[in-house]
Write a structure and sequence with these properties.
globular; three-stranded antiparallel sheet; 2 helices; four-stranded mixed sheet; alpha+beta
């Protein structure tokens, strides 16, 4: 089986053999497997399958997928961008859907957030893992009063729990 692997920040042209993907368990959680028109397969997060469905991509229609690295403050994340190759060959839209102004950055972020929430609600995205178990706890230096300084009478101990001190 020839698998299409996406390089970071490099758009890749693809065409689906079928618009329906198959949900499979992968190393990084659930993935959608699509068979491409050229016989290869691609594995993408469920959010990409939602984008393909929302864009109305039909079998054989060429489009570009880009796995983009995005930096927000000190944090890096991955965004998937889907672009049609030839917009004049788009399937006809509903009569009541009028072309509007371009999507603003905040509208884009909101739409992505809603898509991720819907995917999580459908059980397609893994829940974020808590880092609380990985964070080492410690006992603060004593202040001579046998408590933590706020009058609660509790003292943190190395295993992360608190002990009442009187």
């Amino acid at each position: 089986m020839n698998i299409l692997r996406f390089e970071m920040n490099k758009p890749t042209e693809v065409a689906l053999q079928s618009p329906e993907g198959v949900c499979v368990d992968g190393r990084y959680g659930p993935r959608m497997m699509f068979t491409l028109a050229d016989g290869r397969v691609m594995y993408v997060p469920p959010i990409v399958a939602n984008k393909i469905h929302a864009a109305g991509i039909i079998p054989g229609e060429s489009f570009q997928l880009c796995k983009a690295s995005v930096k927000t403050g000190q944090r890096r994340s991955v965004e998937w961008h889907l672009d049609r190759i030839s917009p004049d060959e788009n399937p006809p839209q509903a009569a009541d859907a009028l072309p509007g102004p371009a999507e603003t950055p905040i509208e884009h972020d909101l739409r992505l957030s809603v898509e991720m929430a819907n995917a999580k609600r459908a059980g397609l995205e893994p829940e974020p893992q808590s880092i609380a178990e990985e964070t080492p706890s410690f006992a603060p230096p004593g202040n001579g009063h046998g408590n933590n300084g706020n009058g609660s009478g509790l003292k943190l101990v190395p295993n992360g729990s608190s002990v009442s001190v009187t």
